[in-house]
Amino acid sequence: MSTEPLAATGVVGAELSAPALAARTSGLRKVYGRTVAVDSVDLEVPQGAVLGLLGPNGSGKTTTIRMLLGLTRPTTGSVELLGVPMPDGADRALPHVGALVEGPGFHPFLSGRENLRRCAAAEPLLPTGGISKAVDDALERVGLAHAATRRFKAYSLGMKQRLGLAAALLVPRRLVVLDEPTNGLDPSGTREIRGVMADLHAAGTTVVVSSHLLAEVEATCTHVAVLHQGTAVAQGELSELLEAGTPTLTVSTEDVQLAVDTLRENRIPFRSAVDGVRVELTGASPQQVVEKLVLAGVGVREARRERTGLEELFARLTEADVREGS
Description:
Pfam families: ABC_tran. Helix 3 (112-121) crosses helix 4 and helix 4 (131-141) crosses helix 5 (157-168). It is built from eleven helices and 14 strands.
């Protein structure tokens, strides 16, 4: 992230209206020479959502975020941020947006507080008289109050990430965009960032977070967009995407080989599971699966229906090689 606020220049416009979508892209495409980084991405971020932007390395996540924020101009396509066309409307939209993109970059010989005061002084929506309180509140919010006087060059990677997040939260925001915000954080720090995101969501702030930690996304996000090879391959409410996946039945049994033979004989797709098998319910109900196993003499200890997990959904959408039984 550039430590200077994104709207440090330009005139702040009138108060923005509240569009149904906090961000929208249409036909978004970015080409660098012969490399297509983003290709025809149509992205919608509902107001008040916490959207997880997922994708393998090189899938176009950071490039998409940079175009959302007006840091990179699209080759073709359009971007709206808080209802304002970007990048031409950056001076109107960006004062209401906090962002941490591609890691923080601060002055190494200044303290955390001094760096943050420089950022705060350039915030169009922050009066001069409110700078000290805003800085102290932001440091406290990200757990850096104890290290506020330490020079930035002495910060760990996780502390640098926290300071970048503090800069994004100096004033109340309509939208907060975070690119890998838990990079370098220990489990305790990751939980704290999760808490910050939950507070933002509870306050009605829209959050877009790029992350490779699928468990964190599943725990914190309301919506998901998956990018693969520069294209959006899925997006929508997280719960609906998970429910749309193939439902499964996990069967616990000591008679694993007999269960495997029975499922193959009845052409029911399955996978190996811990202490049993995981059956895909594509052509049979849970009752039918259990009945066939029991009639074949399989001792079923437990049968538990499960929905698709985010990790499995992500693997399928990004064409990961998943071995299946037959």
